[in-house]
Protein 1
Amino acid sequence: MAYKNQYAILTKGLTKQYGQALAVNGLDLSIEPGRFYGLLGPNGAGKSTTIHMLTTMTSASSGEAWISGREVKRYPVQTRAAVGLVFQDSALDRMMTVDENLQFAAALYNLNKQQAEQRISELLSVFGLEKKRHQKLVALSGGQRRAVDIARGVLHKPQVLFLDEPTIGLDLPNRRAIWRFIEQLRKDEGMTVFLTTHYLEEAEACDHVDFIQKGQLQKGGAPKKLIKNLAAYMLEIDCADTEMVSQQMRPQFGEPLWEDQHLTYRIQDKETDFYRLQKTLGNAVNAMQWRKPNLNDVYLWTVCPPDYGVVT
Ligand SMILES: Nc1ncnc2c1ncn2[C@@H]1O[C@H](COP(=O)(O)OP(=O)(O)OP(=O)(O)O)[C@@H](O)[C@H]1O
């Protein structure tokens, strides 16, 4: 059907059940080509399972999925050709050189010698790894190895690139470098990118993020908009008697997120006089600070809002 071609990723009621456990429950997604999409959620929420179903690594228990207009279940070979995958665990052989690893992957993707040569050179140049081409993976830094992993994932110029925690374990400069490469690939090749990450500041660059918890999707939106809608300020209070302070705060500021002796409030009123509030609370508080909200706050208030239960 024509409208399915409009989307790089489309799912309807996509569900995965492992025994009694619902890993992914009735997922409806519609992601347009060229978008940078983030799926965020705690450990065990169903993020990897979603990627596995969309890339033919596991079959769905029910529901349907289309990649670039083709039904995943009916066209597994074409689906695999249309997607690139970069997982937390490297798909590379550390005892082989960069070139050997990429040539091996190119053969799996059925690239001929000339295509492989051209694509490998092109990608190593984007990643600044030309000089490492004939070095073994073990001799590369963690960031360089991850860059080779990404090069491997996009060798065949996929339409959709799935990145499952692509920067996990990397330090900040390496994480930034990886994101520069991914941005470059998006710009040059117009790929749709589907990201899962625990580093939420990285997801602020997404066009759209959704949240998933216990297999259930909670619709999100554009990160900037979500942040703006969350609050004008976040107010954090450290205090010994949280019951007493929260009781005092409740009429004006509602319920906080509660973590041991740390309370976090959403403040909607831009004109709030925090210095006056500090005076009113007096000795009841040990420390108090207010700041602009970020995506991490949106995530916490979506996944663990105060009426949901205690933040763990
Ligand atoms: N092969 C499997 N057999 C049984 N249960 C599984 C299997 N794979 C995943 N699960 C369960 O499905 C649920 C979702 O797991 P999944 O790996 O998709 O979560 P995740 O959001 O990717 O977590 P993380 O952030 O830790 O990678 C979890 O409860 C997990 O234990």
Note: Residues 18, 21, 23, 41, 43-49 surround adenosine-5'-triphosphate (CB under 6 Å).
Protein 2
Amino acid sequence: MPVEVKICGIRDAEGFDAAIGAGADLIGFVFFPPSPRAVTPGQARALSARHAGGPIRTGLFVDPTDDQIAAVLAELPLGLIQLHGTETPERAAAIRARFATPVMKALGVGTAADLDVVPAYADVVDRFLFDAHPPPGGPLPGGNAQPFEWRLMAGRTIPKPWLLAGGLTPGNVAEAIRTAQAPGVDVSSGVERARGVKDAALIRAFITAAKG
Ligand SMILES: O=C(O)c1ccccc1NCC(=O)[C@H](O)[C@H](O)COP(=O)(O)O
């Protein structure tokens, strides 16, 4: 199976077109206003409309209310809702049922014990994303360019498709995939030339390295 690649935090045409052109499988729009990568639903709709079909449009939320999700879905259909906060399995299940949209739960990994919660989500989400824990007191729960120990994932049976995230770059992604035995990867900071500004050449290099 080819490795799946998600390019997260797309907020301009350069990033969107580069991700599409290079064969991204998923594209992430951040609906978390404190993030430098945040977009409005209208901006995401306009970007998404640049290309019909293609990558799964993923909406990233952090402990969202139903109203926040509904406001986004009123503007553009999402193929996947990414929950990157402290959402419980019950909350993830409720969101999935109410919006009839697949859900990906992001989980922070620092030690093997952090993976103990996976079974609790297994029946109520469609995918997992494993990311580093955010720095204590930091403003963002993700998108921090922080890697975690990739070997913690090796040999694990994860009951749903999953993405490895955290501090990935064009230079380390191939090794990360091998070490973690990851079926997919997600990147934000590693394909930016400045915080929140995607770089087309880095996106192309990342996808080539991941899929190569
Ligand atoms: O990217 C953000 O700004 C962000 C904000 C709030 C919650 C999650 C966020 N990003 C989540 C992602 O899916 C990132 O791609 C993932 O954390 C990896 O980020 P990076 O280490 O910067 O590649």
Note: The CA atoms of residues 108 and 133 lie 5 Å apart.
